[in-house]
Amino acid sequence: MCRLIWLHDEALALFNVDELLPEDRVVFVWDNDYFRNKGWSLSRMVFLYESLLDLPYPNLQVYQGETVSVLRQLVKQNEMAEVFVYRPFEPDLQEIAKELSKSVTMVLLDVPSSLTSPLTTVPPRFYKFWKQVEPEVLGKKLANTGRQKFH
Length: 151
Prior knowledge:
Blueprint: E1 4-7, E2 25-30, H1 32-38, H2 42-54, E3 60-64, H3 67-77, E4 82-86, H4 91-100, E5 105-109, H5 126-138
Parallel strand pairs: 1-2, 1-4, 2-3, 4-5
Helix pairs in contact: 3-4
């Protein structure tokens, strides 16, 4: 039986391509209401779309509509038993997963520990986020130069 693997904007590329079965359905739902409610700009949506195009999943399908409705319909049409998804952190995505779980068996996967953020809140802009994670990602910066010291 095929599995429905739901990608969302917090976990686009976490699924290991080598672990996917040929019959698995990898799905992203382009939900205009979700994007509108989040206040996403056109450039952010373009980035998301281009990121989707670059994903390595050979069987990725993008649907447009309300996320819960689309996923419920896909589960019903394809007689799937479960929806696999990486556990969302963002409250709106958590609410979508909660609503979906009322009618569909959800398999919530934990984000690998090497990818979890120690941040208590996620800043609204990349620059502020980058400033918080830069030391962890790049190591200690050289004083006054802002350049990375490599050993």
